[in-house]
Structures are given as C-alpha cells and as structure tokens.
Amino acid sequence: MDTTDRPPAPARAPGLPHVWAGLALSCHPGPAAAVTVLVAALAVASGPGTGRQVLVTAAVLTGQLSVGWCNDAYDALRDAEAGRRGKPVARGASDPGTVWAAAFAALALCVVLSIACGAAAGAAHLTGVVAAWAYNLRLKETPLSWLPYAIGFGSLPCLVALSLPGGPWPAWWAVAGGALLGVAAHLGDVLPDIEADLRAGVRGLPQRLGAARTRLLLPLPLAGATAVLVLGPPGAPGGPAVAVLGGVAVCAVVVTTVCAGPRRGGIWRKGALAGTVLVASADVALLLARGTGVA
User: Fold this and answer.
1) Distance between CA 203 and CA 201 in Å, rounded?
2) What membrane topology does this protein have (predicted)?
3) Would 9 be classed as within a structural domain?
4) pLDDT for 208-226, tens place per residue?
5) pLDDT score recorded for residue 80
6) Residue 272 lies in a domain
7) Last residue of a domain, which of 156, 181, 204?
C-alpha cells in the first residue's frame, strides 16, 4: 500500500491516562450512552427484577462499546485521509491495536451478559450486535447499509421483553418502532459525512441518495416510528400522546431542514443525529408515561 501521500499522524502522548481518554472518545460515547440509557429505562419500566435490569443494561452497554470501537479501529485509515480530527485513532491519539483489543473484549463481555439475560433474549441481542459489526466491516458500503441499523435497534425491545420471566414475545409495534428509529439514526449519522464518504468510495444507501434526498427522507422514519409507538399499543391514545406525535413531526422537520442544512458545521454538524435521539427519547418517555410495556 502506498503511504507516501498520507499525512503523518501526530505523535501519541504516552501514559495510561491518554490510553483511557482515547478509548473513551473512540467508542462513540454520545450514541452509546443514549442507546444504553433508553434501553435501561425500558428495562426498568417493563417489570421488577433489579438483577435482570442490570444485566440488560450491561449487555447493551458492552455491545455498544464493541461496535463503536470496531468502527473507529476499522475506519482509522479512511478517517485519517478524510481529515476527521475528531477520531482519536485517525489522528494518532490512540493505537489501533489497543482499540481493536477493547472492541473484542467488549464483544466477549457482551456475549456473556446477553446469554445471562436468557437464551432467547441473548440470541436476539447478539443478532443486533453482529449486524452492527457487519455494517462496520462491509455493509456500510452497500445499498443495504440501513439494514443493520434496523436489525440492531429492533433487537433492543426483543432483549427487554424476552428477558422477562416466561420470555414473552415483544410487541410488534415495539420492534417496528425500534427498527424505524434505527433507520433514522443511520440517515442522521451519515448525513453530514456524505460528501467525504463518496470521495472515499463509500456508497451506502444515504450516499447513493445524496445529501439533499437523505435530508428529505429522514423525517419519514422518525415520524413513522412515533406513529407506531403512539398508535400501536392497545387502547386509544390520549391527548398527550397525540400532542407528542404532532410535536415529533415538527421536530423531525426542523432537525432535517434547519439543523442539518447542507452548510451547517460546528455544533450543528450532528444536528440530525441529535434530533433523532431527542425523538427517540420522547417516544420512550411517552411509553413510560402511559405505563406501556414492550411485551
């Protein structure tokens, strides 16, 4: 491989604190924390059992960590060539071997913790984690780039429901809502990097659609997920639920037309992804307020 034109990576600062700081920043801490907290809330609301709730939360956290570290380690060269200074591995602040080791260690822990939640629950969750790894290693460059996100997010209510005593199947609307939120998360996450990805030869679904069409598409899975989660559970939705549905629709339009405009940068750069997290948080809060379980 010709490396003569590659900009040299800055020297890494030695010392254990820098290793931990690099790992913390390489795991995609914002999305990992958001997903873990939302699933933990669902686990707590789904029924008693502190041990089960802790296991579910730990399984999701380790799975998210493994996916984030895998992503940054695998994409280190591509990120460096694209000048993504926010990636510790790409800028030389973290050693790729260390990040790979952390990814596999977290994956091993995720396997153990997922199976401890129950065979069916563990299988469902690990299916989502494997799909996420497949995205990192191959599928992100194909028209099926959205599929691992749909599988991964759809598997989370399956983990929560199947971990309950008796292993009840998750409600269809919980799985469908999770899958739609996953598709929205994919579109929102990729949106600010579409042009750089195309230059690097990455041609997933959003890259093939282009930034303008991806921005127009993003509100659909956001609003669709909220509609499913509002209208799917038994019983007519009350006034607050309808208000949330309308508010989410407005939020979806705002984050994709204002925050994620084609020339937005700085704190607005990840506006679409942040908006998607806000919508997901509102959806989960609505379920909790209604006392609706996912099984």
Assistant:
1) 6
2) Multi-pass membrane protein
3) no
4) 999 989 988 988 898 899 8
5) 76
6) yes
7) 156
Residue 11 lies in a domain: no
pLDDT at 245: 65
Please state the domain count of the chain: 2
Q: Which are the contacts of 112, defined by CB distance < 8 A and separation ≥ 6?
A: none
Q: Where are the alpha helices (DSSP H) in the chain?
A: 16-26, 29-46, 50-74, 76-81, 96-116, 119-137, 146-162, 172-190, 194-199, 205-209, 211-217, 219-231, 239-254, 271-290
150, 176: one domain: no
Structural domain range at position 289: 171-295
Which of 156, 188, 220 is a domain's end point? 156
Q: Are 159 and 125 in contact (CB under 8 A)?
A: yes
The per-residue pLDDT for 289 is 72
On whether the CB atoms of residues 287 and 232 are closer than 8 A, the answer is no
- Whether the Cβ atoms of residue 221 and residue 181 lie closer than 8 Å to each other: yes
pLDDT at 11: 41
Tokens found for residue 205: 């679904």
Those residues of the chain that have pLDDT short of 70 are 1-17, 85-86, 236-242, 244-246, 248-270, 290-291
CA distance 238 to 231: 10
pLDDT at 255: 60
In a domain, 52, yes or no: yes
Residues 144 and 205 in one domain: no
